[in-house]
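Schema walkthrough. Field components (list of strings):
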Amino acid sequence: MPIDLKLFGDLRKKADPKVLGTLPLRLKINDPEITWVADILRKYKIEDNEVSHIFVNGIYAGLKKSVKPGDKVSLFPRNMGLLYKWYFKREEDE
Amino acid sequence: MPKRILRVNMNNLEAKFEDLPGDYAALGGRGMTSTIVAKEVPPTCNPLGPHNKLVFAPGIVTGTAAPSSGRISVGGKSPLTGGIKEANAGTPFSQMVARMRIGAIIVEGKHEGDDYYLLKVTMDGGEFINANKWAGKGLYSVYKDLFKQFGDKVGICGVGIAAELLGGNSGVCFGDPEGLPSRYAGRGGLGAVMASKGLKFIVVDETGAPGVEIANQEVFKAGIKKLRDALTSHDVTKPGGALNSYGTSVLVNIINEAGGLPQRNFSSGQDERAEKVSGEAKAEEVKKRGGTRPHFCNPGCIIQCSEVWTKPNGKDPVGVLEYESVWALGPNSGIYDLDDIGELNRACNDLGCDTIEAGGTLGVAMEGGLIKFGDAKGALKLIEEIRHKTPTGRIIAQGTEITGKVLGVTRIPTVKGQSLPAYDPRAIKGIGVTYATTPMGADHTAGYAIAPEILGVGGTLDPMDPKKAEVSRNLQLATAAVDASGYCLFIAFAILDIPEGLEGVVESLNGVLGANLTVADVAPIGKSIIDIELEFNKKAGFTPIHDRLPEFFIEEKLPPHNTVFDVPDADLDSVF
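Field assembly_structure (string):
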């Protein structure tokens, strides 16, 4: 079962430079080397500071949150960082 | 010229300037409105009777060169909550009133008979003009008429048909910089208070206004420079930042992903269709249509989170579609089309309705079977019943709680009679504590916009953790202080991360007031305001049982996290 990844805003261009419209880009990741959220960022050459919000299965998370097949991961770019980034603790596993 | 109060007696249609009492000199915005309401309004009075008063007050720095500071507070006893109310808006009207050195406009009494009046305010005083010809008409056409009659340099405030029905779902409407009736001090039914007195419009003409007196220009200028630097460098508030690029609707996708975006009368916290009404989608459509984005609600705003939404052909501007409005008239009603939402928002602006209360009302009307969830045409028809003053329209105009009760709905999302905004308290529990305990009734702005770190609470929070009393209290205190300053609440995002920005805010207040406040004074200022409001509410009959969320939030699990609101009552009671 793949990891369901959603990239929002400008982060979509990291996976598809020609992306059009405004809906998030949905990707399915089947990669046994992906263990952490940070691995997903590396896979798409996304720098840590290019991301504001990370949600794993709807939980506000950090780079050290573990991910497994079947998880839903959402990444928001830096210029969409409102609310969660400022108030809430990122859940991490390490 | 010292600051003045304009006292408007609707019994005999008299408007006179008075000296501002010395102990009001350091007050502004919510601090001014709540102080005057608490002092002059009997807490047990009928909100729509002759003893209630409606108070308008610009903030302390409003009308100056301070960035993002064009807020005006409107206060009174709320017909929706039965308690004290402050609602605020960003509008050029506020800046004009401040530059005229009017610290507050107090509207009192109640005109006998069925006539409506317009109050024209100049430096010399007030003049009443019969406004019957504008009664029963939509505010878009009336505001055009008023600007034509009084000139395009005036500021306008008014109430719509929903207020004529004395609806709890009626706001006080201010013009935006283009004159559109789209900037609302919307919450709590204060529009009905204004209409109940026979007052439909206030037009301010600032010709000859001396401007805001600044006690110490040097301190003031240094302060606003620090704040300006913070706002223009922070990711949320800078040009090209989150608010500037996408408006407040940037939150649609974020809160939806977090599982806290209420759908279909708070029955779920997530729906993929919400992506179609996101801030990104809206910003792109505005660009395509030739609308305006970014846009400011008052001159001098750096953040510029506003916009002008139009029809697909780029015509018939609505004004801004805020996050809360998009949510209320969209996902909460099962509607996922921006044009449908835009037309519902247009109807709310035209009729003088609060969009949050209107969306909450649609949600319970749909749950009660009046129309189906997702029926956008039916929703518009239902709101339009207000225009025709039909029995159904009169019920809808009263808001979520009354409409829900009339229809036999038990899942009514209100606190103290006021509809909940766009964050489900089962997924974001701290906001739930604020909804329950703020003196205002369910209000998202009452306590989420200042980060805990500023207030010395330390650390960030788990949104699912029910231990939120202290955080909510501190957020509410800080928010009350910002509401008094005249600054937009959104400056909080920048001054959270950039300490010099917060220092700049305090220095700008010192510059205007000639005071020596420090950052440590922010929370005590907020506390003094909330203490006044809580005391008023206590005298009006409020007890701890009014500081509770509706039962279904405690018992009904919210998908996708399947959580309930589990903050213990004792914690809610410990907030204040």
